[in-house]
Amino acid sequence: MKPARSRIGAATKAALVVAAVVFMPIAAIFVIGFSGDVENWQHMLMNVVPRAGLQTLWLLVLTGAVTALFGIGTAWLVAACDFPLRRWLSPALVLPLAIPSYLAAYAFGEFLDFTGPVQTLYRTIFGFRTARDYSFFDVRSLGGAVLVMSAVLYPYVYLACRSMFLMQGRAAADVARTLGAGPLRVFAKVQIPMARPAIMIGLTLVMMETLNDIGAVEYLGVQTLTFSIFDTWLNRGSLAGAAQIACVMLIFVVLLLLVERHARKRQRFASHKTTSVVADAVRLRLFGARGFLAALFCIIPILVGFVIPVVVMGGFALRRLDGFLEPRLIKALWNSALVSSSAALLTVILAFVLSYAARSDRSRLATGASRLASLGYGIPGTVLGIGVLIPLAAFDNAIDGFLRAHLGISTGLLLSGTGFAIVYAYTVRFLTMAEGTIDAGFQKLSPHLDMASRTLGRSGLQTLREVLLPNLRPAVLTAALLVFIETLKELSATILLRPFNFNTLATLVYEDASRGMAQDSSVAALIIILAGLIPVILVSRSLDARN
After folding, report:
1. Angle subtended by helix axes 288-302 and 49-80, to nearest 10
2. What is the number of other CB atoms lying within 10 angstroms of the CB of residue 466?
3. ∠ at Cα 293 (290, 294), nearest 5°?
4. Which carries the bigger pLDDT value, residue 17 or residue 471?
5. Neighbour count for residue 257 (Cβ, 10 Å)
6. What is the dihedral of CA 26, 29, 31, 36, to 10 degrees?
7. pTM for this model (two decimals)
């Protein structure tokens, strides 16, 4: 007798469809990239990729170094030490996550400009009159990009390391101190090695966000691979060339994803071995000058990453209160709400399918579909924009060609020329975020709930509708809120895929900043920041509860 084949459940089939939808843009990039001319490849590899790749590498390395310094340092101070303002600073250190990198770049461009407050004060103190009389830090440079990216991205490292430092407990540190090691030696020789997986996860997230950025690097004049894709496609009109650069850029992404996956495995192993928390231990008390320096070290990144951008953009907005009723702002706000809510709804539905398949079928296919679908979160928006446009444009052309041939009707661009392309890109990019939130909700529900419901005569669909969904409502709403806010801030994919004369809040700010008039859209920038504060406040409250 032939062995019976394992039956693929309906939920797993749906999950495989979701994974295919997510993977399609990635596959399209390679199809277009490797179908281009060999001469075009040679030109890209010899002239574009080396220069842009080197700039990208320097930006990643330097941003990683600065975020590691402040992320690890502040996490250790608030987790292991006691000093003035610690309870306030611990949740406040997350605030820069509310500031998109492009808004920070525009704010620092104004703050450090020749006519800005810093250089004006500098000239007043030293008696300088013109820019030729003195030298000053040029924010529109690689150094400026490192400053901006580090200022708003260090909380990724801070959050990962703070959690690990809290889980380490006091046992290992106490043993080291018994052997005569001082606090700094314990930190360097014991706690840092134990927190290495968390550090790698945080740095990987920082580098992924750095790769994704287009608004800040373009404004600051740094030619990264991301900017090269944007420039090659829109300014030079070469989709194949942009796809070829995207193929090279995906190498960076794959390496970062491998590092992040490896680090997560090691973090889970480390977490199983450490169960006590440092909150039960006696913190190292810092008094006098040491306490002041510890507080100052934690205050600086908050000032640079949050206070300065908010003060600059808020000051502009207060001088333009009439801008709240400006028609272009209202239209951009409506467009943002429309595409963000559509993306949130679609993303949550697809994420629920993936999580439910993994729970109900418990098959390797369901798990594999979930992992394949998670690739989207590491793909930069510009790369994703190319990948989304190619299959949608092919679909539009096929429908248009068929109807022209048989009915004499031209449909034009049904999908690629509408907001659907933006929603599709948002869904692919933020699906992992929604799935993680919903999966965490599923983890809190006992599998016995499903079995008890089926024992009482409920079908699988009835169990889902009457038992699981009501209990998952908080997780689903949280996932929808997070996706809505992240898509509201998203810029890199939006500027590539938006239809003609279609602006979101992010692209409105981008257009004005590109003309050197960032203050004109300061009200839009403030709305983005206020929206970004919602999840940050939720995180801050959870940190404050564990202080």
Report:
1. 140
2. 11
3. 85
4. 17
5. 18
6. -170
7. 0.86
d(CA 516, CA 500): 22
- Cα distances (Å, whole numbers) of residue 106 to 103, 164, 214, 244, 443: 5, 34, 13, 30, 41
Q: What percent of the chain has pLDDT over 90?
A: 28
Q: How many CA atoms lie within 13 A of 395 on its CB side?
A: 14
Q: For residue 27, which amino acid is it?
A: A
Residues sharing a CB contact under 8 Å with residue 381, sequence separation 6 or more, in sequence order? 212, 214, 425, 429, 490, 491, 492, 493, 494, 496
Roughly what angle, to the nearest 10 degrees, separates helices 469-489 and 505-514? 10
Q: How far apart are CA 30 and CA 248, in angstroms?
A: 10
180-203 pLDDT, tens digit per residue, is: 666 667 777 677 777 788 888 888
pLDDT band at 155 (very low <50, low <70, confident <90, very high): very high
Report the run of H or E that residue 285 belongs to, with start and end: strand 284-285
Rounded to whole angstroms, what are the CA distances from 445 to 10, 262, 430, 449, 470? 21, 28, 24, 7, 11
Say how far apart CA 488 and CA 485 lie, in whole Å.
5
- Are the CB atoms for 199 and 226 separated by under 8 Å? no
> If DSSP codes are grouped into helix, strand and coil, which group holds residue 500?
coil
**Which band of pLDDT confidence, cut at 50, 70 and 90, is reported for residue 231?**
confident
The residue assigned the tokens 């492009």 is 102
Tell me which amino acid residue 46 is.
M
Kindly report the three-state secondary structure assignment for every residue of 387-424. Answer: HHHHHHHHHHHHHHHHHHHHHCCCCCCCCCCCCHHHHH
pLDDT digits (tens, 9 = 90+) for 314-342: 988 888 776 677 888 899 999 999 999 99
What length does the chain have? 547
What pLDDT, on the 0 to 100 scale, is given for residue 469? Answer: 78
Average confidence score pLDDT of the chain: 83
Angle subtended at Cα 500 by Cα 495 and Cα 505, rounded to the nearest 5 degrees: 50
Does residue 468 contact residue 451 with C-beta atoms inside 8 Å? Answer: no
Dist CA 369 CA 28 (whole Å): 18
